[in-house]
Write the C-alpha cells for this entry.
Amino acid sequence: MKLRESVYVIGEGLTEKYYFLHLKRLKSYSCVVRPRFFSSKNSIYYIKKRTEELLKADVTVICAFDTDVSERNAEEKARLKDFLKTYSKNNKVIICDSLPSLEFWFLLHFKSTNKHFPNYKSIRDELRKHIPGYDKTEKFLMQDKWVKILVTNQDFAVKNGKALNSGNGSYSNIFKAIELLEEMV
C-alpha cells in the first residue's frame, strides 16, 4: 500500500466517519478520512486489521471506536485488551476510545460529566437537549449542521475529556485526535 505521509482516521461506523469528514472540511484538518477505513462491523478485529495495514505505510493512525461492546462481550474484551497492549505505547497510533460511545464525546462539548451512561440511547436523550434531532442515521449524520454546533464548543470538550479518568464512569479519548489535528493546522 503506497500512501502519502499523513494522518489517517479509522473507526467503527457511520458516526465516526461523518464526524471526522465534517471536521476535516470545517476545520481544514490535514487528515485522510476514507469510507473504506470505517467498518459497519463494530469490532476491534477490524480496527486492528486496518491499523496494521496503515502502519506498514509508516503513517500515523487515529483509531476512533466505542468500548461498550467489550463491556458485555468477553471475546471483544480480550481483543480490546490485546489491541491496547499492542498499540498503546506506539506513537504512530492514537487510540481514541469512548465508553459507551462517541456520543459521550459530543456531550462533553456541552457539559462536564463522567456520569455512567449505560448505552447510546441514554446519551442520545441528553444530547438532543443540545443538538435537536440528533440521530445515528446516515440521513442525519451526512448533514454537517450537528458538527458545526460541536465545533463552537470544541475547546471545552477537550478540557472535559482530558479531565476524565477512563476507569470511572463514561469517558472519551477523542480529545487526543483533536489535539493532534489542531497541531497540524
About this structure: Residues 7-183 form one domain. The chain has ten helices and five strands. The radius of gyration is 15 Å.
